Amino acid sequence: MSQSDNDRHEIRQLVENWALWRDAGDWDRFATLWHPRGGWMSATWFQGSATDFIKASREGFEKGVSILHFLGGHTADIVGDRAVAQTKMTINQRASIDGVEVDVVCTGRFYDFLARHEGRWTLVRRQPVYEKDRLDVVDPASSLTLDPHLLNRFPTGYRHLAYLQTKAGFTVKQGLPGLTGTAVEQLYAEGKQWLTQA
Known about the structure:
Blueprint: H1 3-24, H2 27-31, E1 40-42, E2 47-49, H3 50-62, E3 66-79, E4 82-97, E5 100-117, E6 120-137, H4 148-151, H5 159-167, H6 182-196
Parallel strand pairs: 1-6
Antiparallel strand pairs: 1-2, 3-4, 4-5, 5-6
């Protein structure tokens, strides 16, 4: 296997381990995926250091917060000891809204900034790109009416996810990257800059 193929394999494995170890609550192994000098995680409900993200995720997991991740296609641009990877994903969160149990599925991409540290790839920054989402009532016999004012506060790419998380007590960040727009264009520019500094 060439070095390039080996790098791509390791990066893909890191991305898969992130989803599996986080969703399973395997916090010790999950912590090994991040760059030791400080990774950064951005999400609808959280923006901060990897250490704080692990702590917040663990606390939510132990309280029964149900957020699962599923992965699809993957690509990585690698320059020396730096890389930018994109992985198709869905975020699936189950919770109750106004006493009605629902599932929200949000489809998008993980946009990852990576660096090789002591011979292995580590995650420096993760920024999801939120492309579209939907909300389904778990029990088809139940019905739910959403507050249009609250729903329309958020971009189309993650408005249902933001609605559910806001109702659950989270503070949801506005203006996160979607399929198009200035936020995702800025993210792409930052990815190019990351690689040119390699």
